[in-house]
Amino acid sequence: MQPVDCRACGTRVLVGKNSPPHTSVQWTTDAGATCGEFAPRVAAGEPAARIPHCAALRSSIEYAVAEGLVRIGPEESGPEE
Prior knowledge:
81 residues, alpha+beta, three-stranded antiparallel beta sheet, 3 helices, 27% helix, elongated, Ferredoxin
């Protein structure tokens, strides 16, 4: 997985792209506390796990892919020992 910073709020996530339509996101912080789109919804009582996505983060990931900052394809393994 490769780090991507949201261009709206600066929250850093880890991103995996196995194919163009497949995106895995691993949050490295509490999304309800750091994400500008999640925070108000979590404060209103909605569980962060039920919020499907953040539009600003999705845009940031698409930008990172277009700029070659996130590679598409399976993660490479290191040499076997």
